[in-house]
């Protein structure tokens, strides 16, 4: 017959087996740390060196600051990320003949200027109202290789080179949704909200980096 001490030892044994091992917890923490390190390393590399694009806007160029998504007619504060709308992404006969059948490449996007004016004047009144870019962004060149576009675009302060692929009959530009971090979100949210007749009060600069990923590099008040 087992002593009381031996019986107590038997009762405690299942509990010992149920305790998670320290090695498993340590391994989970190591994996999490490596994942975070990889993310931050990617961010640092993306923002190192010469940007592959830089375009400045004002708060009036984004719907969050000027329209009310709820339909109440009252202007709303900044609530989300910045979406960039780009015109001129139709493939076109000249591009189809020059590039042939390939489905991945790059587009150079420019803001304003003579190219935008010419494009805008060619649109119908309906297209101007509903389909044209509120930010005056226009795809002005396409290529298989980013290097062929970076020679002329991305460093002039109003253009960027973006990855893209071919849809049914249009280029689909990637990396045109600018993620907004918590710190910058607080900055944007502090900008006074205006209505339809928005008066620019802040300049918002967006950069694209080595991975062609965008971020907000600066928000300054226009004096």
Features:
single chain, 223 residues, alpha+beta, eight-stranded mixed β-sheet, two-stranded antiparallel sheet, 8 helices, 10 strands, 35% helix, 24% strand, globular
Provide an overview of this structure:
The protein folds into 2 domains: about 5-45; about 45-220, no CATH class. About 35% of the residues lie in helices and about 25% in strands. It is built from 8 helices and 10 strands. β6 (about 160-165) and β7 form a beta hairpin. The radius of gyration is 26 Å and the shape is globular. The mean pLDDT is about 80.
Mean pLDDT: 79
Number of domains: 2
Reading the helices and strands in chain order gives HHEHEEHEHHEHEEEHEE
- Helix content, binned percent: 25-40%
Structural class: alpha+beta
Distance between the termini: 92 Å
Shape: globular
Unreliable spans are: none
Share of residues in strands: 15-25%
What is the radius of gyration?
26 Å
Q: How many alpha or pi helices?
A: 8
Number of strand elements = 10
Largest sheet: 8 strands, mixed
Biased composition (Basic and acidic residues): 1-16
Region (Disordered): 1-20
Transmembrane segments: 25-45
Keywords: Membrane, Transmembrane, Transmembrane helix
């Amino acid at each position: 017959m087992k002593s009381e001490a031996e019986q107590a030892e038997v009762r405690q044994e299942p509990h010992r087996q149920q305790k998670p091992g320290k090695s498993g917890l340590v391994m989970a923490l190591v994996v999490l740390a490596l994942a975070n390190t990889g993310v931050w390393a990617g961010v640092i590399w993306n923002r190192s060196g010469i940007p592959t694009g830089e375009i400045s806007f004002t708060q009036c160029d984004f719907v969050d600051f000027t329209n009310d998504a709820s339909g109440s007619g009252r202007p709303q504060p900044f609530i989300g990320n910045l979406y960039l709308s780009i015109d001129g992404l139709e493939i076109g006969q000249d591009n189809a003949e020059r590039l042939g059948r390939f489905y991945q490449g790059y587009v150079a996007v420019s803001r304003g200027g003579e190219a935008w004016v010419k494009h805008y004047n060619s649109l119908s009144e309906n297209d101007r109202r509903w389909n044209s870019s509120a930010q005056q962004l226009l795809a002005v060149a396409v290529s298989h290789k980013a290097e062929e576009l970076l020679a002329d675009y991305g460093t002039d302060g109003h253009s960027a080179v973006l990855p893209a692929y071919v849809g049914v009959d249009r280029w689909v530009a990637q990396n045109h949704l600018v993620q907004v971090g918590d710190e910058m979100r607080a900055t944007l949210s502090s900008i006074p909200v205006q209505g339809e007749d928005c008066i620019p009060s802040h300049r918002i600069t967006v950069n694209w980096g080595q991975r062609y990923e965008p971020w907000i590099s600066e928000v300054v008040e226009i004096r």
